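FAQ: What does the model actually see?

It sees only this:
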Amino acid sequence: MSLDSFLWRAGLAGVGVALAAAPLGCFVVWRRMAYFGDATAHAAILGVALAVSFDLPVFLGALLVALAMASLVTSLSARNVAVDTVLGVLAHSALALGIVAVSFLDGVRIDLMAFLFGDILAVSRWDLAIIWAGALAVVALLAWRWSALLTATLNEDLARASGIDPAREKLILTVTLAVVVAVSIKVVGVLLIGAMLIVPPAAARVFAKTPEQMVLLSGIIGATSALGGLAVSWFYDTPTGPTIVSVAAAIFIICNSLGLLVRARQGN
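And it is asked to produce this:
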């Protein structure tokens, strides 16, 4: 089979998103930035509306608005604003505003459900190129800054003593998060991107003994979820994006159950 097969393209797209989300998702879990990811993802739907309005690529519109939202949240958090409350307001407001903006587009038909929940089966070769280019860029950037990012995540005082600027490292995470949101919107949609960032790393954490192991296991779990969800969706005719997240959730439950059994046996 070749890339002319939509199933091959869908599978490659799912694996690409999983590889991009794995290392970044680990940092999201370690830094407890789950709501931050949701706010950035929800803002992407407004980027879709703006991109269509100005006849721009959807990826570009989603990326620019996701960057703007991530930068805004980072700025507010640096000013000691009540971050949880601000994130809640911004996340839901951006999503609602984006949906309202889409409704004002005259003469343009947008499959809103595809952007909300993903449409991996409709991934084109161009979409696939964008997904993998974004995924490789994210992985390369995080690999390059791995030591500094990890130090700033574990202990900001130690990072400063080592000559590392924690604010700069957080900005790098902000940029990579926006890229992942932009490339993932076609695969799992803005409502499910947060789950793909959180669930695989949360499952991987049960068995990982080092940060590097957690990233590796997270990537494997994410890719397995994408391919497994695609297969289940194909055989049972279920929505593909939500099915992928459901498979990831099932793996999370299995991993945690196995972890409890292992700890119970060690305790005995």
